[in-house]
Specification:
Chain lengths: 595, 595
Amino acid sequence: MPIYHAPLEDFRFLFHEYLDLEPCRDLPSMAEVTPELIDAVLEEGARLAEQVLQPLNAVGDREGCRWNDGAVTLPTGFQDAWNTYVAGGWPGLTTDPEFGGQGLPGFVGLAFSEMVNSANASFTAYPGLTHAAYEGIHQHGAPEQKQRFLPPMVEGRWCGTMNLTEPHCGTDLGMIRTRAERLDDGRYRISGTKIWITAGEHDLAENIIHLVLARTPDAPAGTRGISLFVVPKFHVDAEGGIGERNGVRCGAIEHKMGQAASATCEMVFDGAIGERIGEENRGLACMFTMMNAARLVTGIQGLGMAAVAHQNAAAFAAERLQGRALTGPRFPDRPADPILVHPDVRRMLLTSRALVEGCRALGLYTGVQLELEQSHADAGQRNRAGHWVALMTPIIKAFFTDVGTEVTNLGLQVHGGAGYVTDTGVEQFVRDVRITQIYEGTNGVQALDLVGRKLVANGGETLKSFFDHARTLLDATPETELAEFTDPFKSALERLQDTSAWIYQQMSRDPNEAGAASSDYLRMFALTALAFVWTGQAAIAWRKLEASQGRTAFYRAKLDTARFFMARILPDTLALDARIRAGAAPIMQPADDSL
Amino acid sequence: MPIYHAPLEDFRFLFHEYLDLEPCRDLPSMAEVTPELIDAVLEEGARLAEQVLQPLNAVGDREGCRWNDGAVTLPTGFQDAWNTYVAGGWPGLTTDPEFGGQGLPGFVGLAFSEMVNSANASFTAYPGLTHAAYEGIHQHGAPEQKQRFLPPMVEGRWCGTMNLTEPHCGTDLGMIRTRAERLDDGRYRISGTKIWITAGEHDLAENIIHLVLARTPDAPAGTRGISLFVVPKFHVDAEGGIGERNGVRCGAIEHKMGQAASATCEMVFDGAIGERIGEENRGLACMFTMMNAARLVTGIQGLGMAAVAHQNAAAFAAERLQGRALTGPRFPDRPADPILVHPDVRRMLLTSRALVEGCRALGLYTGVQLELEQSHADAGQRNRAGHWVALMTPIIKAFFTDVGTEVTNLGLQVHGGAGYVTDTGVEQFVRDVRITQIYEGTNGVQALDLVGRKLVANGGETLKSFFDHARTLLDATPETELAEFTDPFKSALERLQDTSAWIYQQMSRDPNEAGAASSDYLRMFALTALAFVWTGQAAIAWRKLEASQGRTAFYRAKLDTARFFMARILPDTLALDARIRAGAAPIMQPADDSL
């Protein structure tokens, strides 16, 4: 069975040494936050992840969810785990104190989220979608709606969902057909079928609050005619009390490649009564403000599974005896050397580690910017932070989930044949993580968002924010001893700048150039962003070692991993650059039927 | 449900226009072979694959194999399919006429193998392992053993297996513990436990002939003390008649990520009676001659699943309506454009196609060389062909199976959310193909074989064979209009030559340099080999188009795909080169516990 030990040491390094939390000092969410509090929260979260959630991960995969006449039963132990989760106050970790939340900064929530996803990705569907629905109502609901719906969600008494996709439309939500007819009392009667609704039905909580995209009868066609509705599983009265069943039921659940314990539901709305959230015909805009947060969390989900996969592969490689080191036996008294003596096994483990720790640092760095964007007193600061977040959101969603698939596959490969056997438990990571490259907007859609929107947004200010942070870091890293990190980072940065300009020129001539470059450009950007966080981490580790300050092995490992990243991963940007500059012609010229 | 249409048009192009079969003309296996015969065999094979095997693929995944008290039951329909396979004479397609086979050339068998693997990879376990056991006995058995065992295997009345792995040893077979004690009659009593034995037990055939690696009591330690034995499930008398059950049974079957219908067995040998094949203590050498053929076929298995995945993705992309082309609606009268208008979807499809058709061409090209190596009258010709085969075997095994995982994942991604749902059937390809990167020697082991053995073999003659073929092709491709293919191919060739020399120098200093470079070098070599076959295919297609000879759309597609390969895949060699030249230090320096 897989192991899981939460990366508390790395979190401590990131929160207390790497991240600059100074600009957050006066944020309301930071009012009571001390380094000790962050550590305590993460240690408590680690215990939950390691002791409660992780042991259920294989159970969930084996048993899956069961559908019977509209009811969905979750695997053994999930109800108890949910109760423990709720009793620990985790649904309220980062939510608004006005509705009962603890109001901690979102970046602490991201670290917690990584651990929970490492431990049991399927389980996270239930709190994850609840939080997404909370966000929707919190951002767009009327004060009275917030008062009625949010406190029980923050408490964990009620859950939530997002209902977007229909059989004929996923990415292209303009084609939504679900109808909402206005009743005399101002409420709506909702009818239609939604598919792939994560956590759409289950028996964990007293109620489920569905956020539903639908179309009013006189709405304009396309994306500008979609509104957002709250449709509870059980009616909610004016005081927040629960009434009869509403006209929504789960028609079926999907059998999927992975995430078997996360119920993926077909939801049939048959004249269900709902309330509108936000303005009429502005539903898609409301949904998108939520989806940005959801995209970050989806990226963290990919990272979480990569992290646990790497950890298990490293443990296996240290234990499995097979063959001898190429330079002669390293452990002559044992029947064979552990496989970690082999360069190719080390390559797989170091690739995994460099990607995992790089993504973790970039994710939390972006989490800090998100906190500044959302709550800093100064509009300029909010604005600047917002540029970074806008730019990094598609990168984190797409690249971190690509890393999820890459690293879980590397982890399986390190295990050899044992990795393919279900009982070992590591093939589950490969299957579970695969959906993260698809949901919350496929990674292709993210890439198009990056190149088609973010590259040109705000007269280039959004794009520039990355280069500003990079320049600040380089200015603060003058040590010649750190040139082994700053030099390759600078080169990658220049390459990214040149290529960005080249794409910008090409796409003004032909929009297909943007699409043709998009995925390679996103990866090139992501690797350069990882070079940014690895340079920053290496600089701190090097200075600590120079000053002979504690944790020597930890800092050495940081430096070694940073070196590996620069030498063996960052050069991929060379190929990505060459691919991009081949332009759209090789992609667009072939006839449709020769694809 | 997935579709499958065998790539007969591409096979016809490869066999009748691309491949040079002239040097094979006088081989015994070619005595009755005409282009029409090849077409007829492949058309018949396509029918079997499309109509008999493919419909059972999802059934096999759903039902899996069942173990009960040592007996293994295969999924519904597998017995009938096996009977049809046998009735069609397919087990004897390429086997020796002396034992009842049809003796067709192995490269026709490779094409057939691709189709069967596209249709139903799990099913191929049974004929595939039977063929491997046939090869072992055919190459190393005494004449009397061949007469007794081979005809029923060629007929398909008996099946076969290979028993190598034990719980504590997979790659490192020197640690094998299974014991073989010699009896007075010259036979052996075999005891031990083997794991992960594909097709180890089932009820398809009258008997199962296990080839087993074991150690005699006085054998030297390590790989030089291992012998090869034939252990039939039911005793076989001198006339080939079947007797009582032998002392071998299936103790359990594995639950795996994929290939659910291929029984992966724990085989318990409890004093089973066996006969030695080949010389004592030379068992591993015998096994390796078989494994080279098995490695080619494993590569083809990866290719087969990539091919069917690509085909389904292309069909889905042509049907699924979602969004609009970036340059404005392509089909304004439909509610949305098919997703193949999007550059990033086209990128995924063209990447898949370029890899699939490139691997297909390289695999068959190598199949021709294998035929020359095995049966050409001239020793020099056999020798030269053997160099090519030795060089390409690890490349085909590792790269084609990597392509299998990459392309099945691209295919899933093109499907979006539908790809993740089991019923769509394409996620099965991702799960089924994943083991091919591991079995028959992990891809890391293949890479080490390439760089540690093949790069230096025969004073460089083995390596040189690729450059000789490349030079011959370039000399025969002088047209300036083809420079768009020959130029990038030449550059890649020079890069490969330089990098090979660099690695050769480095590894003489430090063996870890070979290991550190190995996987990236194998991929670099594979991409350059694909540039070789794409240049060759493009040249033929261009000349046919110039001469206005038939199949215009087909040739245009070949040229477009070749262009895409050169522009958007081959540049990866830049990054691989840079990674390799970073050397072993970044991989070997980190402490073991910071991997």
